[in-house]
Write a structure and sequence with these properties.
Elements lengths: L2 H7 L8 H4 L8 H9 L5 H19 L12 E2 L11 E9 L5 E10 L9 E6 L2 H4 L3 H17 L8 E7 L3 E5 L2 E4 L16 H12 L4 E7 L1 H7 L8 E7 L3 E8 L12 E5 L8 H4 L5 H9 L14 H17 L10 H4 L6 H8 L4 H11 L6 H36 L5 E8 L1 H5 L1 H14 L3 E7 L5 H25 L6 H20 L8 E2 L12 E8 L4 E9 L2 E9 L3 H4 L3 H19 L7 E6 L3 E5 L2 E4 L16 H11 L6 E6 L1 H10 L5 E7 L3 E8 L12 E5 L17 H9 L7 H6 L1 H17 L20 H7 L6 H10 L6 H36 L5 E8 L1 H5 L3 H12 L3 E7 L3 H21 L1
Helix pairs in contact: 4-15, 6-7, 8-18, 10-11, 11-13, 11-15, 13-14, 13-15, 14-15, 15-17, 19-29, 21-22, 23-32, 24-26, 26-27, 26-29, 28-29, 29-31
The structure holds 6-O-phosphono-beta-D-glucopyranose and alpha-D-glucopyranose (2 copies).
Keywords: Allosteric enzyme, ATP-binding, Glycolysis, Kinase, Nucleotide-binding, Repeat, Transferase
EC number: 2.7.1.1
Membrane topology: Peripheral membrane protein
């Protein structure tokens, strides 16, 4: 015998029929009545089986597994915490679906002060049957009319009304104000609503009505309203239980256990929708022929089988079916029924409550039965009372088994053997059947002996709780508006991008002509991409990106082999004296030569120097100005090759033959050009950004000659330094620029490249924090630190394979304590910033390829772009956004992007090889 049995719930005691309850029972016919009511008895073992099976069904749904039978649904509700009591404001609450055919509108004022309550005003409207079963639009129009009618008599403004919608049907929620009806339950069956967002349907109806401007900010299940409106007692109330027309419960689950959510911390309120529990093994044995008949005749046969044994909509109907059965058997009412008794729905929950109440006495029962057109004898009243009690006791016990399953779940998920918990209860069954709660409480004690449960009746039928959720939702919606406003200037239209493209074209043309332009359009003296006949061993240097590298490049008939080593350039060297910088470079070369066994050999050297240089030949380049993080003194205006040669001379031991100086864009183009002859553009999106391309020599004013081509280093990073980009520049761009070592310079680069995107994001985050939108408005020291937010974080945060919780982990490593709402907003900030960067870059590439196409007078140009740079390569969406923008803005160019695998060093060696080949040829 199980423990419940031993505690006395077996053998019919659990489902008391009159004799066990000590009620006076009529002596004759008692066997037939007993036999009938016996079916409503549920044993302890059966209750325990329901508890276990329902728990299993809940856990299965949490894991995201769908069983063969439609089980409980476990729907996340977007409510993450129980109220703090600090919420305040005036809210309109519209309740639909909790209480039968009625719709309730409330005006709730939250004071934000604990213990200080303002009584809500409310009005109830009866929904006509034809509206409950008619077109969805008619139902929502009806709701909108009720709202207006209610508000008409209140002294309220028409503006800024915030509404919480209590909609008590199973819904897939995807936000606090977005909820799709899965299926109607309880007596509703309106067409064209299932599968639709009910918030939108309500909004549309309010708009059609046109009388009030109301913002529907939250949608809430009645169980959630019940839980959230509960006055916090000793501890928070973390379960909401409703037994009204239907039945359901919600509770606070650990978010990490909810597979459909991408969360590892905190809790989330789950609406169980236990009404749809339907395990045949557990429910079959407790179902009666009356349950089967009721289900069969209902609007939704086969669905909500558990609810149909508990919910108030069905209790009266079950009683009616039993009474009809007993009357037809001649046991009751002298064998007579009445047309009213025979019609579906004629016994309501209120009737059952009245007849069941022993204190009301037989006279009350008589009166109710007479209203049903019956002519009861004295004994009939007592039997009817027994029937009501049997039906309701079973309902309370089944509800207790379900609640016990929730308590077991809480015990398990919180790893607490002894659980102390408050359950908020709501619904007319609790309000009108005092015995329901006592049977429920008793049964829960037996089924969940380690739980100390206090039952707290809900306030204002859950309306206050709905207002609480609405208050939170309204705050979040206001935050979202501020976020949108902040990010709006980053969202560029096609027209704006086309304008960037056009301005870039103009600046290119002017730069080539030697007119004033922010694009310098520097000739590189590279006139051809490699032809494959180059051979030899070359040294290469690669300075100006993330890494400084020294390379040995062997170009053979079998291809190109590279050995290289990365050396660091400490910030103090990059920003120290020029002499120091070049001495350091030569030291690294010497070290490399020693390690490679090349000491003493004078190999031809190509120097990738990724800064703007005015070249007069391949081996001459005057540094115009430093960019990115470099600022070594006495270099600007000097020939970099000379500076390197002087350092070599100072270091007497080495002999080096510097043949070519090459920008990284050129190195990249050459390196990719070795594989693909169509590669005539080199693009870098890394620490900095820049482009080079093959221009017709006749267009280059500063170099003699009219035939052939020359590679032009556009130095597009400086685009906009003449103020032409000011329309697009945001306050955050201005802050980043002002704090940089070269204010006013490289404005295009500062909107695009890796050195700056993290900083832009950091400035936006600071702003949003100051508005109270992020991090609860708390500024942290870490976030105020320059460069703390690396651009690689954007790539990591935006990676599709990363869950939101990993995003949060990245940010928490930065000392930013955030909620999941914060994490989502940070993600959106990153996306806006990197999207703008990629689109601007795409607009630039579109300008370049269109120019090449027009230069060549082609209808359509097929061209490849060699690309390198950490941002382009590591960011998950950057490359596709660039390509999409180019397709949009340069539709007549078929552009292939080739990622350079070997860095620009290889390209520099190839330029050197071409130069050596040409030099040899000239000598011959
Ligand atoms: C590589 C080069 O091609 O790309 C570097 O070898 C260059 O010198 C770099 O500057 C750009 O990328 P990042 O991200 O290192 O600046
Ligand atoms: C039904 C609904 C559910 C609601 C319950 C109580 O079961 O499907 O959403 O909470 O009734 O009203
Ligand atoms: C900066 C440099 C430029 C270089 C680019 C990419 O913009 O000025 O020469 O190509 O960064 O590294």
């Amino acid at each position: 015998m199980d423990s419940i049995g031993s505690l006395g719930l077996q053998q019919g005691e659990g489902a008391p029929s009159c004799p066990q309850e000590g009620l006076p029972c009529p002596s004759n016919s008692s066997e037939m009545v007993q036999e009938c009511l016996q079916q409503f008895k549920v044993t302890g073992a059966q209750l325990r089986q329901i508890q276990t099976s329902l728990l299993g069904s809940m856990e299965q749904a949490l894991r995201g597994q769908v069983g063969p039978a439609p089980a409980v649904r476990m729907l996340p509700t977007y409510v993450g915490s129980t109220p703090h009591g600090t919420e305040k404001g005036d809210f309109v609450v519209l309740e639909l679906g909790a209480t039968g055919a009625s719709l309730r509108v409330l005006w709730v004022t939250l004071t934000g002060i604990e213990g200080h309550k303002v009584e809500p005003r409310s009005q109830e409207f009866v929904i006509p049957q034809e509206v409950m079963l008619g077109p969805g639009q008619q139902l929502f129009d009806f709701a909108a009319r009720c709202l207006s009618e209610f508000l008409d008599v209140l002294p309220v403004d028409n503006q800024g009304l915030q509404l919480g919608f209590s909609f008590s049907f199973p819904c897939h929620q995807t936000g606090l104000d977005k909820s799709t009806l899965i299926s109607w339950t309880k007596g509703f069956k309106c067409s064209d609503v299932e599968g639709q967002d009910v918030v939108q349907l309500l909004r549309d109806a309010i708009q059609r009505q046109g009388a009030y401007s109301i913002d529907v900010v939250a949608v809430v299940n009645d169980t959630v309203g019940t839980m959230m409106g509960c006055e916090p007692g000793v501890g928070p109330c973390e379960v909401g239980l409703v037994v009204d027309t239907g039945t359901n419960a919600c509770y606070m689950e650990e978010a990490r256990h909810v597979a459909v959510l991408d969360e590892d911390r905190g809790r989330v309120c789950i609406s169980i929708e236990w009404g749809s529990f339907s395990d045949e093994g557990a429910l079959g044995p407790v179902q009666t022929i009356f349950d089967h008949t009721l289900d069969h005749e209902s609007l939704n046969p086969g669905a909500q089988r558990f609810e149909k044994m508990i919910g108030g909509l069905y209790l009266g109907e079950l009683v009616r079916l039993v009474l009809v059965h007993l009357a037809q058997r001649g046991v009751l009412f002298g064998g007579h029924t009445s047309p009213v008794l025979r019609s579906q729905g004629s016994i309501l929950l209120e009737h059952v409550a009245e007849m069941e109440d022993p204190s009301a006495g037989a006279a009350r029962v008589h009166a109710v039965l007479q209203d049903l057109g019956l002519n009861p004898k004295a004994s009939d009243a007592e039997w009817v009372q027994c029937v009501c009690m049997a039906v309701c006791t079973r309902a309370a016990q089944l509800c207790a088994a379900a609640l016990a399953a929730v308590l077991s779940r809480l015990q398990h998920s919180r790893e607490q053997q002894a659980l102390q918990i408050a359950v908020a209860t709501g619904g007319r069954v609790f309000e009108r059947h005092p015995r329901f709660l006592s049977v429920l409480r008793e049964t829960v004690m037996l089924l969940a002996p380690n739980c100390d449960v206090s039952f707290i009746p809900s306030v204002d039928g859950g309306g206050r709780g709905v207002a609480m959720v609405t208050a939170v939702a309204a705050r979040l919606a206001a935050h979202r508006r501020l976020l949108e406003e902040t990010l709006a200037p980053f969202r560029l239209t096609r027209e704006q991008l086309a304008e960037v493209q056009a301005q870039m074209r103009e600046a290119m043309a002017k730069g080539l002509q030697g007119e004033a332009s922010s694009l310098r359009m520097l000739p590189t003296y590279v006139r051809a991409t490699p032809d494959g006949s180059e051979r030899g061993d070359f040294l290469a240097l690669d300075l100006g990106g993330t890494n400084f590298r020294v390379l040995l490049v062997r170009v053979t008939t079998g291809g190109v082999q590279i050995s290289s080593q990365i050396y660091s350039i400490p910030e103090c060297v990059a920003q120290g004296s020029g002499q120091q910088l070049f001495d350091h470079i030569v030291d690294c070369i010497v070290d490399f030569q020693q390690k490679q066994g090349l000491s003493g050999q004078s190999l031809p050297l190509g120097f990738t120097f990724s800064f703007p240089c005015r070249q007069m030949g391949l081996d001459q380049g005057i540094l115009l100005n430093w960019t990115k993080g470099f600022n070594a003194s006495d270099c600007e205006g000097q020939d970099v090759v000379c500076l390197l040669r002087e350092a070599i001379r100072r270091r007497q031991a080495v002999e080096l033959n510097v043949v070519a100086i090459v920008n990284d864009t050129v190195g990249t183009m050459m390196s990719c050009g070795y594989e693909d002859p169509h590669c005539e553009v080199g693009l870098i999106v890394g620490t900095g950004t820049n482009v080079c391309y093959m221009e017709e020599l006749r267009n280059v004013a500063s170099v003699d000659g009219d035939s052939g081509q020359m590679c032009i280093n556009t130095e597009w990073g400086a685009f906009g330094d003449d103020g032409s980009l000011s329309m697009l520049s945001t306050r955050f761009d201005a802050s980043v620029d002002q704090a940089s070592i070269n204010p006013g310079k490289q404005r295009f680069e500062k909107m695009i490249s890796g050195m700056y995107l993290g900083e832009i994001v950091r400035h936006i985050l600071l702003h949003l924090t100051s508005l109270g939108v992020l991090f609860r408005g708390q500024q942290t020291q870490r976030l105020q630190t320059r460069d703390i937010f690396k651009t690689k974080f954007l790539s990591e945060i935006e990676s599709d394979s990363l869950a939101l919780r990993q995003v949060r982990a990245i940010l928490e490593d930065l000392g930013l304590p955030l909620t999941s709402d914060d994490a989502l907003m940070v993600l959106e900030v990153c996306q806006a910033v990197s999207q703008r960067a990629a689109q601007l870059c795409g607009a630039g590439v579109a300008a370049v390829v269109e120019k090449i196409r027009e230069n060549r007078g082609l209808e359509e140009l097929t061209i490849s772009v060699g690309v390198d740079g950490t941002l382009y390569k590591l960011h998950p969406h950057f490359s596709s956004l660039v390509a999409a923008t180019v397709r949009e803005l340069a539709p007549r160019c078929v552009v292939t992007f080739l990622q350079s695998e070997d860095g620009s060093g290889k390209g520099a060696a190839l330029v050197t090889a071409v130069a050596c080949r040409l030099a040899q040829r000239t000598r011959i």
